[in-house]
Design brief:
about 65% helix; mainly alpha; 3 helices; about 0% strand
């Protein structure tokens, strides 16, 4: 069951207009944070080596 009070607070704080919009926004935020957390967990694991700036083609 969805917590209606939590949805209402999220709508108020975010400025979104519909339940669907706030659920989609919340899920996107959750996925983004989970991916970032996973990246941090991999730091130092040896799974990736190199220079990020070089990989992206950053100048300098």
């Amino acid at each position: 069951m969805v917590d209606e009070l939590l949805i209402e607070e999220a709508l108020r704080l975010s400025g979104e207009k519909t339940y669907s919009a706030i659920v989609n926004r919340s899920l996107a935020d959750f996925v983004s944070r989970a991916k970032a957390r996973r990246i941090l967990e991999l730091r130092g694991s040896g799974l990736w080596e190199g220079e990020l700036g070089e990989m992206r083609g950053d100048p300098g």
